[in-house]
Design brief:
The protein is of the alpha/beta class. Helices cover 48% and strands 12% of the residues. It is built from 17 helices and 13 strands. The strands form four sheets. Strands 2-10-9-8-7-3-4 form a seven-stranded mixed beta sheet, with helices on both faces. Strands 1-12 form a two-stranded parallel ribbon. Helix 7 links the parallel strand 3 and strand 4. Helix 3 packs antiparallel against helix 14. The protein is globular and about 65 Å long. The two termini are 37 Å apart. Bound molecules: pyridoxal-5'-phosphate.
């Protein structure tokens, strides 16, 4: 069974029959053995029956594919341990100076500072002015959680439960829950996705920034917007920043895909760096789940850019209290892997190369899917497939077409039409493209 159930890979129809038979099999054997001792004969029969079904080409001809995954997969549909991570893990295991004592409540200092540097840039004036600090968190989710808890307690006075928190429509589903769970009672959507033109609804976005209550909190995806894969351009970010500055709105960046979107760490951090250069005080939740492939190590960082050094000190001291009652002390392994990598020029270069490998595979799948749809003459424009970036793409398929893909083609995607580009491989892309073509041409 495990061979069939490869994540993101092919699951064949006869699986159901085989499972049934294998479950049935021990009962049959026992019954027959007890009845007349023909155990060996029934054993052979059962094996033959299973083999016939498994090797029947007609039954094998309906491949199922899942494009619903949330993580990176190789062209073989396998998870990928980054070579640089493997290397650093060996270094860590052989380092006799390390132990399993508790880390400081705010985390590993060399992790926190290097993580903040990759998002703000080595030469960030804010770092030079000692007004940048960080909290090591349990993944990007933990960073959002600590930031949300802090804002609910201290953002503007001591009771912020009524302060509106705006999340994009649509957004990563956990944003709503994390902020509500921290006590915010008014989590609202801001306009982001224009389904008609399959792109950013800039006018709607700017309109919501203009009309929201002053001082509202806005969660902005730093790059590779999940789930639409659509980011504002630098010019559009500038217009967004202008309104946010004028209206004194709070910026909470969520950076879960740095490097993954374009293959370049700097390019993917452009928006955050621009806002800092404009003098915003802000939070940035960073996740290293995707760009280091460290999903289960729960490694994230909450970068705090404060007004001044004193303000930073007070903020971190309150965050320390929040962490103490949340997870008390963070885990070390993932943070050590990231810190060792980011603090060595050679390993850092290797990591950037590994990230680029992942980003390039996604870009290749995007280019091939678009090209195949265009050459099939699939109605509609497919430029959005390559205009969007990062792991996810909003295909634009409507709910009925999605249902057709799932039921008739055994291609699994989200009801919203979102696919994970990493579910595509050089082996299944023709089938997926042909199925999209059939969905678009036969189902309205
Ligand atoms: C936009 C966004 N933010 C945060 C996260 C959470 O990341 P982590 O797994 O590090 O908690 C994700 C993960 O899918 C995400 O897509």
């Amino acid at each position: 069974i495990p061979d069939y159930v490869t994540p993101g890979g092919v699951v064949t129809q006869p699986l159901k029959h085989s499972i049934g038979l294998f479950f049935f099999f021990p009962g049959t054997c026992t019954a027959l053995l007890e009845a007349n001792g023909t155990f060996e004969c029934s054993l052979r029969l059962c094996f033959c029956f299973n083999l016939i079904i498994i090797s029947n080409p007609r039954l094998l001809s309906k491949p199922q594919r899942t494009l619903r995954g949330k993580t990176y997969r190789t062209d073989e549909s396998k998870p990928w341990v980054l070579p640089v991570v493997k290397k650093v893990e060996k270094v860590i295991v052989h380092d006799d100076t390390l132990n399993h004592e508790y880390l400081p409540i705010l985390g590993l200092p060399e992790f926190r500072s290097s993580a903040s540097k990759i998002v703000l840039g080595d030469d960030s004036p804010a770092i030079g002015e000692n007004r940048v600090g960080a909290v090591q968190c349990l993944g990007g989710t933990g960073a959002l959680k600590i930031g949300a808890e802090f804002l609910r307690r201290f953002y503007n006075g001591s009771n912020n439960t009524k302060t509106p928190v705006y999340v994009s429509a649509p957004t990563w589903e956990n944003h709503n829950a994390v902020f509500s769970n921290a006590g915010f009672e008014d989590v609202r959507p801001y306009k982001y996705w224009d389904a008609e033109k399959r792109g950013l609804d800039l006018a709607g976005f700017l309109g919501d920034l203009e009309s929201c209550p002053g001082g509202s909190i806005f969660v902005l995806h730093a790059c590779a917007h999940n789930p639409t894969g659509t980011d504002p351009t630098p010019e559009q970010w500038k217009r967004i920043a202008d309104v946010m500055k004028r209206r004194k709105l709070f910026v909470f960046f969520d950076s879960a895909y740095q490097g993954f979107a374009s293959g370049s760490l700097d390019k993917d951090a452009w928006a955050v760096r621009y806002f800092v250069s404009m003098g915003f005080e802000l939070f940035c939740a960073q996740s290293f789940s995707k760009n280091f492939g460290l999903y289960n190590e729960r490694v994230g960082n909450l970068t705090v850019v404060a007004r001044d050094a004193d303000n930073l000190k007070r903020t971190l001291s309150q965050m320390e209290k929040i962490v103490r009652t949340t997870w008390s002390n963070p885990p070390s392994q993932g943070a050590r892997v990231v810190a060792v990598t980011l603090n060595s020029p050679q390993l850092f270069a290797e990591w950037k190369d590994n990230v680029k490998t992942m980003a390039d595979r996604v870009l290749l799948m995007r280019a091939q899917l678009k090209e195949k749809l265009q050459s099939l003459g699939t109605p509609g424009t497919w430029d959005h497939i390559t205009d969007q970036i990062g792991m996810f793409s909003f295909t634009g398929l409507n709910p009925k077409q999605v249902e057709f893909m799932v039921k008739e083609k055994h291609i699994y995607l989200m009801a919203s039409g979102r696919i994970n580009m990493c579910g595509l491989t050089t082996k299944n892309i023709d089938y997926v493209a042909a199925s999209i073509h059939e969905a678009v041409t036969t189902v309205q």
